[in-house]
Amino acid sequence: MSERSILLTNDDGIESVGFRALYDALSEFADVTAVAPKTDQSAVGRKMSSDAIVAEHELGYALEGTPADCTVAGLEALCPDVDMVVSGINKGANIGAYVLGRSGTVSAAVEAAFFDVPAIAVSMYIPNDGDVPWHELATDPRDYREATHAASYLAKHAVGAGVFKQCDYLNVNAPMRSTGTPADMEVTHPSEMYDMTAEFENGSVRLHDRIWERMRSGDIPDPDGTDRRAVIDGKVSVSPLTAPHTTQHHEALDALAETYIE
Q1: So where does a divalent metal cation get bound (predicted)?
Q2: Quick check: 3 and 32 in contact, CB under 8 A?
Q3: What is the CATH number of the domain that holds 14?
C-alpha cells in the first residue's frame, strides 16, 4: 500500500505554531504538502480570490490568499492527487452551528468536499480561566498534543472505516492538554446556541459574541451530544458534517410556488 498523501492548510497562517505541530504529526505516517495562507486569514469564511500569489515554502506552498483559495489551488494545481485535506490546527475552538460559515479553518474543509476529497478541520479549545489572555497561550507545539493526536488518529483510520461514506468532512475540536493521558473522543453535532449582541453608540455598532465569556464562567446550557458541551467537559468533539446545503420537501413553500403567478 502506497503512502497516503495529505494537503495541509489552515487559516492562522503557514507560520503558526499549531500548523507546524500538525504538519510534523501527520508527516510521521503521510506525505504532507502544505498549501496555506502566507498570513493570518482567520474568520474569512469561504471568501475566494481570483488570483493568489504563490511562494515556495520549506513545507510546501504559501499563498497570499484565503483558506478556500488554498484548497482549490492545491487540489487543482499544486498537489492534485492527494487523498485528503486537513485544515488546522486552529488556535481557538470552532464550535457551534453559527461558527461553521465564518471559520476559515472549517471553510477549507468544506471546499474540499466539492472535489469529493475527504477533509478534516481541526481546532483547539483554549480555556481562559487565568490572568493571561487566551490568544497569548498555546505558544509551544506541545500545547497542541491533544489536537494532533486526534487529527492523526482520524486521518489514519476514518477513510478505511467508511466514515466519509456518510459525511463530507469532520469538524474536530480538542481541548488544550499538554500533559496526561489522551481525552475521550465523542461524536457530536454543532450546538445551536447563539448569543451575539450589538450596541449602537456615537455612530458605531459594537458587535460582541458573549458565548466565549459564558464558557469561561460555565454558564452554558448546551446539552450532552453537542460540540460545545463535549469540549467544556474535556473531550475531543468530532462532528460529521455535510457540505452542500440540504433541501427537503416543503409543502408550505410548494403551495406558495403554485400561486406565484395568480
Answers
A1: 11-12, 42, 90
A2: no
A3: 3.40.1210.10
Answer whether 18's CB lies under 8 Å from 12's CB. yes
Q: What would the grid cell of residue 1 be?
A: 500500500
> In sequence order, which residues have a C-beta less than 8 Å from that of residue 200 and are 6 or more positions away?
none
What is the pTM (predicted TM-score) of this model?
0.94
Max alpha carbon distance in the chain (Å)? 68
Q: How many CA atoms lie within 13 A of 80 on its CB side?
A: 2
**Contact yes or no for 239/171 (Cβ under 8 A):** yes
Is 10 labeled as ligand-binding? no
pLDDT at 1: 46
Q: Structurally, how many domains does the chain consist of?
A: 1
The three cell numbers of residue 244 are 452542500
pLDDT band with cut points at 50, 70 and 90 for residue 114: very high
211: Cα separation from own chain's centroid: 18
Three-state DSSP class for residue 105: helix
Question: What gap in Å lies between CA 5 and CA 107, rounded to an integer?
Answer: 20
Q: Tell me the residue type at 255.
A: A
| CA gap 144, 177 in Å, rounded | 7
Instruction: Give the residue, 220 or 185, on which the prediction is more confident.
Output: 185
Looking at the domain assignment, is residue 254 inside a domain? yes
pLDDT of 253: 87
- All three cell numbers of 255: 403551495
In a domain, 210, yes or no: no
Spatial separation of the C-alpha atoms in residues 164 and 91, rounded to whole Å:
25
State how beta strands 169-175 and 119-125 pair.
Answer: parallel
Task: Name the E strands within 116-165.
Answer: 119-125
